[in-house]
């Protein structure tokens, strides 16, 4: 996925896609480091430039707190499906679909924490781009999100490229090669495999 042309095509498809309720919900799913956040930002800028009110919500804001994960022995697997507050996320998605004005949490990657009520969805917003690893995940609870999506995309990145991106991400935080490999092997690589293995059909594959 690359180039302004592709962004224009995707943005046009989003604007012209039907919506089931007062807002259009678009899911951008895919493994970690597949480019979901980058694509969501580019699409949001493109759509807003066309006077189509759009906002982005990231599933990362719904990470359980590190203290909770530590108590349950889940901190080393942070990023796995069970390390998110799925109930709260599902409740927010339902509210967004209903057209409500809602606050939502945002993830501060530098501090590795979620900040409650850091974002606000305005009632005038027409389209919401929701990005996250498990938005097309064929496992109990997660698959119940599927009916909320008016349009869904899965970012399919070749595994070698994905591994390089994940390792580069950890190195950007000051880890050496061995440390980056260990962190990615502990969580990111297994999570990427789970996302691919249990993928639900989506409107588009990118």
Which SSEs are present, and which pair or pack?
Layout: H1 4-16, E1 24-29, H2 36-49, E2 54-58, H3 66-71, H4 86-97, E3 102-108, E4 113-121, E5 127-132, E6 151-154, H5 159-171, H6 177-197, E7 204-205
Parallel strand pairs: 1-5, 1-6, 2-5, 6-7
Antiparallel strand pairs: 3-4
Write up what this structure looks like.
There is one protein chain. By secondary structure, the protein is of the alpha/beta class. The protein has one domain (4-205): 3-Layer(aba) Sandwich (Rossmann fold). It is built from six helices and seven strands. The protein has helices at 4-16, 36-49, 66-71, 86-97, 159-171, 177-197, and strands spanning 24-29, 54-58, 102-108, 113-121, 127-132, 151-154, 204-205. The strands form two sheets. It has a five-stranded parallel beta sheet with strand order 2-5-1-6-7, with helices on one face. Strands 3-4 form a two-stranded antiparallel ribbon. Helix 1 packs across helix 2 and helix 5 crosses helix 6 (177-197). It is globular.
Annotation, overall tally of beta strands: 7
In the residues, how many domains can be counted?
A: 1
Envelope shape: globular
CATH superfamily: P-loop containing nucleotide triphosphate hydrolases
CATH architecture: 3-Layer(aba) Sandwich
The H-and-E topology, N to C, reads as HEHEHHEEEEHHE
Discrete helix count: 6
Q: Main β-sheet, in a few words?
A: 5 strands, parallel
Give a summary of the structure in a few sentences:
By secondary structure, the protein is an alpha/beta fold. The chain is built from six helices and seven strands.
């Amino acid at each position: 996925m690359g180039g302004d042309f592709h962004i224009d095509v995707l943005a046009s498809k989003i604007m012209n896609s039907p919506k089931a309720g007062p807002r259009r919900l678009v899911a951008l799913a895919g493994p970690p480091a597949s480019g979901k956040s980058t694509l969501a930002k580019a699409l949001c800028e493109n759509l807003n430039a066309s006077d189509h009110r759009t906002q982005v919500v990231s599933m990362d804001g719904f990470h359980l707190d590190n203290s909770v994960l530590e108590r349950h022995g889940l901190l080393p697997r942070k990023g796995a499906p069970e390390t998110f507050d799925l109930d709260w996320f599902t409740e927010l998605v339902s509210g967004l679909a209903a057209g409500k004005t809602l606050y939502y949490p945002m993830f501060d990657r530098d501090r590795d924490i979620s900040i409650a009520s850091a974002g606000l969805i305005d009632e005038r917003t027409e389209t919401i781009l929701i990005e996250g690893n498990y938005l097309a995940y064929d496992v109990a609870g997660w698959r119940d999100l599927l009916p909320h999506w008016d349009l869904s995309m899965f970012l399919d990145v070749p595994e070698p490229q994905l591994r390089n991106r994940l390792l580069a991400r950890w190195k950007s935080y000051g880890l050496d090669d061995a440390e980056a490999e260990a962190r990615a092997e502990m969580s990111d690589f297994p999570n990427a495999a789970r996302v691919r293995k249990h993928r639900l059909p989506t409107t588009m594959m990118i």
